[in-house]
Each structure stands twice: as structure tokens, then as C-alpha cells.
Amino acid sequence: TKQTTSFQVTGMTCVACANRIEKVLNRLEGVEIAAVNFTLETAKVEYTSSVVSSEEIIKKIEQIGFQARINE
Ligand code: 9UX
Q1: Which one of 31, 41, 43, 68 is separated from 13 by 20 to 30 angstroms, measured CA to CA?
Q2: In the chain, where are the structural domains located?
């Protein structure tokens, strides 16, 4: 099933941070499209939930030095 989740991302200090996160997420297995907004501090990710989970997406963002949580 395809799912779209919005994450709140903190720790980005310049717009290149957003580009870094976006690139990493777009290379992650199961992710269809990732769009990171530096100003809004959000990551909108469309993914196949049988391949990758929201927890794994959060883990990946944290691995490269940022904090993420699901945006309710
Ligand atoms: Mo900007 Mo971010 O110089 O990972 S790219 S701080």
C-alpha cells in the first residue's frame, strides 16, 4: 500500500540540509517521493508501507544527524 506521511524535522540549519535529507530519503528502498521543506521543517514522504515503515524513515533521518517525528 502506498502511504504519504508528513514528518516534522528539526536540526536543519541551512537549505542544503534539506537537500541532503531529501537525497538520502529518495535513495531509500520503498520511498517513491520525498520532499523536504527547510522553512516549514517538514518532510513529506510517499512510500510503499510493505517495504519501508515510517519508523525506518525516522531512523534514516536521525542517522544523518537530524531529529524527526510524525507530524500529527
Ligand atoms: Mo548546511 Mo546542513 O552548511 O547538513 S548542509 S548545515
Answers
A1: 31
A2: 2-70
CB atoms within 10 A of CB 57: 22
pLDDT digits (tens, 9 = 90+) for 12-62: 999 999 999 999 999 999 999 999 999 999 999 999 999 999 999 999 999
First-to-last C-alpha distance (Å) of the chain: 20
Q: Which ipTM was obtained for this model?
A: 0.87
Confidence at residue 25, expressed as pLDDT on a 0 to 100 scale: 98
What CATH topology corresponds to 2-70? Alpha-Beta Plaits (3.30.70)
Query: 20 CB under 6 A from ligand 1?
Result: yes
